[in-house]
Structure prediction request, 546 residues.
Amino acid sequence: MRSSKWWVRAVMLARAVSIDLNNFHLLHYRRVGGFLVTGKNSGTHWLKWLLSHAIAAQHHLPPPAQSSGRESEDFIGHPRWPRKYPQAPRIGASHNLPSSILNWRGVRDLVRLPPIIVLVRDPMEAMLSVFVKWGGLHGLTLPQYVRLPVSLKSKLPADAWWYVEFFNKWGWIARTDPSRVLVLRYEDLSRDPAACLRRIAAHYRFELSEEAIAAALSVADRETVRARQDPNHGETVVPALEARNSVAFSADDRRFLRDLFAEHMTYDFGYGYAKPRTGAALAPFGVRAPGGALRALTAPRAVAGWGLGATAALALLVVVSPLRPATPPTPTVYATAKGEHRTVRLADGTVADLSGGSRILVSLTKGHRDVTMTEGEVAFQVVHDPNQPFTLRVGDRMLRDIGTEFDVRRGAGEVAVTVREGRVDVGPGADPTAPMIPVVAGRQLRHRDGADQSTVAEVAADNVFAWKRGLLIYQDQPLRVVLDDLNRYFPQPLRLADPKLADLRFTGALTVDGEKPTVQRLAALMSLSAAETGDAITLGPNPASR
Prediction:
């Protein structure tokens, strides 16, 4: 693999130029409410079927009659076809790779692209599905299909190189424009389709009731989708399970593909194929990576007034010029002492209210608003700016937001994110391209440090924000969370006589008007005793309550 790296880059560059000179994918989708781009054989028809039924139920319209062909695309399909239901959202769909000109965030804003959802699947599983559907038409064995060389035109609709290109191009755009692009994994859709439909609706900014989602789930099984295929469509979109299960990669095939992906894939959306890279290596062809080199600049015919000749000349220009690594700015630190409440207005106009014992590090640069929260509780009112998404790292989570109001609490080994207005996306901080969970107004996400899953539930958001007026309100929270909060307000630490008491549940309100009266009220509500022991106040079982 390594000996052919530059040859691969040259061919992939030529493929990118070919795409850009033939058409400019996505640019003609500006008039739709959303855009769905999917990896080939990654669950495209299933997702379109589910989402179309949900939209139809939401607007009291007839659902698609078929799961493939023209009649499957009343709600999701090519935007050039007449819009059948003007009262319902219209979503454009394609497998297309983005034009290289869309690698520039400014261009994406200029052409005003709608919200984009990218559906991906483990590329090895997707390739097996491609082979089952199309392999026999070309007389290829599975090992031959796996080892097809990189070329300007593949023998099949998608080979390993197609997935490398698809993941790299969309991975870059998802990384640089997270407010516009939501990455959805087929595996997550299969595991919890209802949750994924909610995420999709939130990203596209339209409503899907629980009844509409239930209507979609009622037709979600494989056999229903397979039975409703258009027999005249000419493509089996849901192959028989027997055919699908009859093929499998050998150990050598898997080893070959893993080596290929590790060498050439810079984004893998959490599938574990790409090697960690930094700098220019993270940029697809035609993009300047932060602190890296300008590689394979391609500029297609996408802005009015550009001629094809000028576009082709720019598209074929390759410049390799090292850049001096930019020195990251020193973040500004805002912190509060125990019991202190501080309100700060950041340079972009965002307001941060810091509770006692809180600390944030703020770095505002052109195109980025990055904040790290190390401890405490902070309420944010983020100024709307789609060109500069607001990113907050806290614990092992990362939050992305454009403009909204939310509260973040960090303590007792967990992170709690409560949204009062707008929406915040929350995901793992270690992988910025991993799927994120949307948290909308009136809901709270809770995440234990190191856990694989987070929980989202409805809350009374105003109760969470009540700390700003000196009132702590809890609904069925463990005592350890309550003590963690109080220890940020008062100088004398609160402790438990028995660690088992930490899991006791508390529902109630505490007025923060002094340490001793607040602790005494808590002890009375919990039927506990409170006594000073040395430099601390210790809560323990109350003998009188036995």
The longest helix spans residues 5-22. The chain has 16 helices and 23 strands. The longest strand covers residues 368-381. The radius of gyration is 27 Å.
